Amino acid sequence: MNNNDTKNLIIRLFNVSKKFGGVLALKDITLDIKKGEFVFISGPSGAGKSTLLKILCLAEKASEGQILIDGMNLSRISSSKLPFFRRRFGMVFQDFKLIPNRTVYENVALVLEAAGEKSSYIKKKVMQVLRTTGMEKKFKAFPPTLSGGEQQRVAVARAVVGEPSIILADEPTGSLDSKSAQIIFDFLMEYHKKGSTVLIVSHNLNLLDSTIKGRNIEISEGTIKRTATML
Questions:
Q1: What pTM value is reported for the model?
Q2: Domain hosting residue 150, numbered range
Q3: Of all residues in the chain, what percent are helix, strand and coil, respectively (each to 5)?
Q4: Do 172 and 96 form a contact (C-beta atoms < 8 A)?
Q5: 63, 28 contact by CB (below 8 A)
Q6: Number of folded domains in the chain?
Q7: Does 30 fall in a domain?
């Protein structure tokens, strides 16, 4: 790989393994992901898909190997710099992880408030992403009053409001009906088209169609079993 190719890589894993107790969840993973790439990570339950996302955003630490994010070695990030590092990521979870006693607006605004943005910018930006995800009319609603699909739209808005360079989605459609699942997937693909690197973990291959350009990486028993290029 020449120097220009290396500069275009935003995620690099070298012989990465992760152990929980005596159990290997990931085994010797080596993987390069380009800036702006779409990667669909599939495989059976318990294969290690979610663990892979967790070590990328340092929710878990790798047991062995090296990980570079935009040239930064994760093993060398100090605890004081960790919050700033995590701003590179937008996270979407299967169980939404919204704060139930905060409104839709407040759940999304928290990301920008934590980053120290001005209130005028926060209001403008939050309402912009809520319009994009079709939730602007429910900005005063509380998460428990929303459907699963609506809550996941809010979760997507929260993930993208800080304009992260990388979006990680862990089974974002797993608890949704097929129509809601497709809507959420399409939202994520829209942000991919805007330039974000998007990694989606899912067992639902029905979400993929012939128009999608990217890679499908299949993980089984903690290892990469197959990589297929889409289009």
A1: 0.91
A2: 35-60+78-230
A3: 35, 30, 35
A4: no
A5: no
A6: 1
A7: no
